[in-house]
């Protein structure tokens, strides 16, 4: 901690992630020549600085092999830069896009996370945000818990206004009901994360995030289906006890038979995950993340990306030499010449303090990389849709292939069909064809739904739709009512930040 | 067979004695011997932690069953062998995670009550060097955060807060807050803030002395002008909080009767940061609301009448808090009531203040 950090010691490159808390960048530490992750927190968005300070205090008093190391932080303008250890394989959530993990890998990950949780809980700390996206993997296969504190705390502060900021799928029922916030909440979230790693997504994702907060406390606890081993299913059940006193502690879970399975996992098994992911990215044509582009170029694009750029506001402050003077007061005193001078001295010294050369590390939105013609927002939307569809197809495929013993030819035909679908919806070079295909597909489904031939319906449509057509009607009425609720909720939750922005 | 020579404590008192020996060794030894003492200290501290956490199986058969009794025995030995100052002095030599156990021990002792008294507070008052030791924390980067947590726990007791604010070291905190290391800066600020806000009566008496008031105003003004974003925002908030406390009346009136202070606050009011503007407003309003304003203060306010009114008109408009709206209304009204004529005493000229919205500035 004795090192004094400053912005000129770092060379920012790729954007690693974005959240309610700000942006995370990959950076070169020009002093140690190591790669680090830098999180930029916009303090102007935070009502209570003491909360941030408490979290930094917590970060700096945690050193554990399974927790990403905190190196230090410093203030730049109104942003707090937090320097953290960088783990090159990314998060479990990233790797999960290429398909669910095997049980032994899940066991290995859970064991490592439990070590970290045991350490935290033992020193009276709660992580509050366990999920696959916060479990990072290093190049030696090491597993580390990240985003401990700051991000969560910030979203908690935000949540005073938004009620529930972020995604509540991993939240324990008692947290949602505002009953109690104990370290057992982390154990629940770990159980949900285990399910996420096994299926590719947490339970209840069929609900919107504002609906899921009603679903989780209702119970029963989510569980794994019978396709998984007895040990794994029991492990998840021990994490997901509705009653906090029944729920296991990290220490107890470390002794669970399921954790033993992962002990034989080697570095190569973890690296294989990355391999699979890279191949998958190639297959779906995902582009590499953009490299950092110096600020000089940025001005040309800055308008185009205004909506996405998170740092515009920051530039105002950072680039401005006269940080003080949005308004020019007349502060001269007629009868007291000294007064004017003192003030001049003060402003001079303030100016000098803020005269730092313009910050030329303004990050670049990753979307600049894309073709000029495309609207970056639309592009992102498509990417998200594509990702989601691939996840769904993967889940379907793994379910079918585990249920039925596929021959090579059957396997290949299914893969072909999957590729056809992805191509026609997203990948085909002919834009018009993609549109037409989407229309074609929808009309086809609609016609099947309307057909009088019940056998055809049975063949093509899910059982759910058929047997519950009558109930679907009721369901529709219900959702009609629900829509009112949602409306009310949305009004309450309307965030104010958009107003706050205007004031700079 | 080294383990045969390891002494395992039989009683809480024993444990403190052995720990004391090991920690004292840390100071005096080097190399492998030091490492050994460090490991031993860690081992005993972990035992100590279990005791503090209520695990009473440590002492086996001869165990004293009740938790308060164990703590009682522990603390007797702790006071008599002066282990706290040894632990604190050598904290940097103790292993990273074990330092937190020392903090836990210190804070648990402070919370212990014996009747109406707090024995640890009495002990610290009789051994103020421990407090002085803790106050040096910001100069020791490795342990400054641990020191800060302990010091703030002690500060909750008025008698200790009194030692802290009257210690010459207290003024160093204004310098510590301005250090480049964020953690130390914010930790020092937390200590500074707690010392001045928790015990209102004590601080009110502290601010009855003119020399202290002057020194405080100079120091906080420096933080509000020369600090980084966080320091500026936090120190302005601290000042705004302090001048609203009744017991600090003398300091408040001395602050708002000096036009130099008003200039600083007006600069903050015009800061680009919304949050700093808001904190600045909370000080500014007192200047305006003050029924007996100094002439120089009136002059500056009058000169800027139009701009102030323009600024306040749009200032924080979306904020829906009744108290704030009422305050803003009042301040606007008070500014309207300011005299429209500025008298220049030096030259005897009478100037009409900016009826067209232009500000008369002789130095332009």
Automatic annotation (TrEMBL), chain A:
<dbReference type="GO" id="GO:0005737">
    <property type="term" value="C:cytoplasm"/>
</dbReference>
<feature type="region of interest" description="Disordered">
    <location>
        <begin position="294"/>
        <end position="319"/>
    </location>
</feature>
<dbReference type="InterPro" id="IPR050629">
    <property type="entry name" value="STE20/SPS1-PAK"/>
</dbReference>
<dbReference type="InterPro" id="IPR000719">
    <property type="entry name" value="Prot_kinase_dom"/>
</dbReference>
<dbReference type="InterPro" id="IPR011009">
    <property type="entry name" value="Kinase-like_dom_sf"/>
</dbReference>
<dbReference type="GO" id="GO:0004674">
    <property type="term" value="F:protein serine/threonine kinase activity"/>
</dbReference>
<keyword id="KW-0067">ATP-binding</keyword>
<dbReference type="GO" id="GO:0005524">
    <property type="term" value="F:ATP binding"/>
</dbReference>
<feature type="binding site">
    <location>
        <position position="39"/>
    </location>
    <ligand>
        <name>ATP</name>
    </ligand>
</feature>
<dbReference type="Pfam" id="PF00069">
    <property type="entry name" value="Pkinase"/>
</dbReference>
<protein>
    <recommendedName>
        <fullName>non-specific serine/threonine protein kinase</fullName>
        <ecNumber>2.7.11.1</ecNumber>
    </recommendedName>
</protein>
<dbReference type="GO" id="GO:0030447">
    <property type="term" value="P:filamentous growth"/>
</dbReference>
<dbReference type="InterPro" id="IPR017441">
    <property type="entry name" value="Protein_kinase_ATP_BS"/>
</dbReference>
<keyword id="KW-0547">Nucleotide-binding</keyword>
<feature type="compositionally biased region" description="Low complexity">
    <location>
        <begin position="304"/>
        <end position="319"/>
    </location>
</feature>
<feature type="domain" description="Protein kinase">
    <location>
        <begin position="10"/>
        <end position="259"/>
    </location>
</feature>
UniProtKB/TrEMBL annotation, chain B:
<dbReference type="InterPro" id="IPR011989">
    <property type="entry name" value="ARM-like"/>
</dbReference>
<dbReference type="GO" id="GO:0035556">
    <property type="term" value="P:intracellular signal transduction"/>
</dbReference>
<comment type="similarity">
    <text>Belongs to the Mo25 family.</text>
</comment>
<dbReference type="GO" id="GO:0043539">
    <property type="term" value="F:protein serine/threonine kinase activator activity"/>
</dbReference>
<protein>
    <submittedName>
        <fullName>Hym1 protein</fullName>
    </submittedName>
</protein>
<dbReference type="Pfam" id="PF08569">
    <property type="entry name" value="Mo25"/>
</dbReference>
<dbReference type="InterPro" id="IPR016024">
    <property type="entry name" value="ARM-type_fold"/>
</dbReference>
<dbReference type="InterPro" id="IPR013878">
    <property type="entry name" value="Mo25"/>
</dbReference>
């Amino acid at each position: 901690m004795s090192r004094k950090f400053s912005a000129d010691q770092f060379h920012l490159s790729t954007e690693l992630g974005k959240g309610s808390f700000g942006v995370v960048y990959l950076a070169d530490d020009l002093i140690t020549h190591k790669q680090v992750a830098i999180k930029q927190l916009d303090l102007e968005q935070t009502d209570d600085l003491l909360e941030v300070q408490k979290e930094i205090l917590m970060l700096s008093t945690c050193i554990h092999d399974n927790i990403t190391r905190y190196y230090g932080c410093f203030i730049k303008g109104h942003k707090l830069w937090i320097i953290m250890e960088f783990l090159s394989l990314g998060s479990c959530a990233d790797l999960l896009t290429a398909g669910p993990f095997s049980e032994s890998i899940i066991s290995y990950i859970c064991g490592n996370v439990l070590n970290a949780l045991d350490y935290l809980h033992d020193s009276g700390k709660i992580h509050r945000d366990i999920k696959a996206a916060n479990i990072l993997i290093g190049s030696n296969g090491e597993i580390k818990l990240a985003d401990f504190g700051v991000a969560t705390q910030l979203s908690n502060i935000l949540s005073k206004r938004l009620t529930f900021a972020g995604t509540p799928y991993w939240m324990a029922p008692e947290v949602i009901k505002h009953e109690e916030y104990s370290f057992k909440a982390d154990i629940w979230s770990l159980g949900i994360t285990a399910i996420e790693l096994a299926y590719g997504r947490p339970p209840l994702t069929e609900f919107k995030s504002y609906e899921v907060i009603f679903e989780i406390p209702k119970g029963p606890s989510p569980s794994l289906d019978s396709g998984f081993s007895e040990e794994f299913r029991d492990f998840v059940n021990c994490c997901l006890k509705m009653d906090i006193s029944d729920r296991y502690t990290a220490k107890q879970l470390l002794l669970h038979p399921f954790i033993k399975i992962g002990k034989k996992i080697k570095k190569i098994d973890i690296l294989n995950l990355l391999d699979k992911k890279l191949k998958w990215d190639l297959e779906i044509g995902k582009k590499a993340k953009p490299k950092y582009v110096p600020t000089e170029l940025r001005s040309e694009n800055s308008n185009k990306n205004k909506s996405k750029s998170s740092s515009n506001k920051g530039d105002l402050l950072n680039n401005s030499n006269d940080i003080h003077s949005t308004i020019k007061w007349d502060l001269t005193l007629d009868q007291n010449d000294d007064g004017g001078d003192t003030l001049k001295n003060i402003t001079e010294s303030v100016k000098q303090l803020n005269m730092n050369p313009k910050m030329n590390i303004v990050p670049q939105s990753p979307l600049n990389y894309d073709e000029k013609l495309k609207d970056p927002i639309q592009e992102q939307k498509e990417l998200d849709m594509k990702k989601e569809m691939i996840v769904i197809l993967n889940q379907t495929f793994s379910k079918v292939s585990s249920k039925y013993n596929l021959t090579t030819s059957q396997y290949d035909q299914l893969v072909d069909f999957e590729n056809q679908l992805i191509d026609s919806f997203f990948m085909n070079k002919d834009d018009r064809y993609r549109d037409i295909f989407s229309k074609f597909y929808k009309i086809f489904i609609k016609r099947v739904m309307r057909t009088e031939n019940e056998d055809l319906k049975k063949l093509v449509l899910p059982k759910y739709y058929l047997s519950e057509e009558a109930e679907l009607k009721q369901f529709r009425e219900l959702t009609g009512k629900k829509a009112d609720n949602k409306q009310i909720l949305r009004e309450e939750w309307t965030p104010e930040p958009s107003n706050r922005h205007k004031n700079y | 067979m080294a383990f045969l020579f390891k002494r395992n404590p039989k009683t809480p008192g024993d444990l403190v004695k052995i720990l004391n020996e090991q920690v004292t060794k840390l100071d005096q030894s080097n190399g492998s011997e030091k490492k050994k003492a460090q490991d031993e200290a860690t081992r005993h501290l972990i035992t100590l932690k279990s005791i503090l956490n209520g695990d009473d199986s440590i002492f086996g058969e001869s165990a004293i069953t009740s938790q308060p009794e164990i703590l009682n025995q522990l603390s007797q030995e702790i006071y008599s062998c002066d282990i706290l100052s040894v632990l604190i002095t050598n904290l940097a030599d103790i292993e990273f995670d074990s330092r937190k156990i020392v903090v836990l021990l210190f804070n648990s002792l402070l919370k212990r009550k014996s009747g109406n008294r707090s024995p640890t507070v009495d002990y610290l008052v009789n051994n103020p060097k421990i407090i002085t030791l803790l106050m040096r924390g910001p100069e020791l980067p490795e342990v400054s955060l641990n020191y800060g947590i302990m010091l703030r726990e002690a500060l909750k007791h008025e008698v200790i807060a009194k030692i802290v604010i009257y210690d010459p070291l207290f003024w160093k905190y204004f310098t510590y807050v301005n250090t480049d290391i964020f953690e130390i800066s914010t930790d020092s600020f937390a200590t500074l803030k707690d010392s001045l806000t928790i015990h209102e009566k004590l601080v009110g008496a502290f601010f009855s002395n003119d020399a202290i008031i002057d020194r405080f105003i100079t120091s906080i003004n420096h933080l509000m002008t020369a600090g980084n974003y966080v320091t500026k925002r936090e120190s302005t908030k601290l000042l705004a909080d302090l001048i609203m406390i009744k017991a600090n009346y003398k300091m408040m009136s001395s602050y708002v009767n000096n036009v130099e202070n008003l200039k600083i606050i007006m600069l903050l009011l015009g800061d680009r940061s919304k949050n700093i503007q808001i904190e600045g407003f909370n000080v500014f309003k007192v200047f305006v609301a003050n029924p007996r304003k100094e002439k120089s203060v009136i002059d500056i306010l009058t000169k800027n009448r139009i701009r102030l009114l323009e600024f306040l008109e749009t200032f924080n408009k979306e904020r829906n808090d009744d108290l704030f709206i009422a305050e803003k209304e009042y301040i606007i009204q008070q500014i309207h009531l300011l005299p429209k004529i500025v008298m220049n005493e030096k030259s005897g000229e009478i100037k009409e203040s900016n009826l067209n919205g232009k500000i008369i500035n002789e130095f332009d």
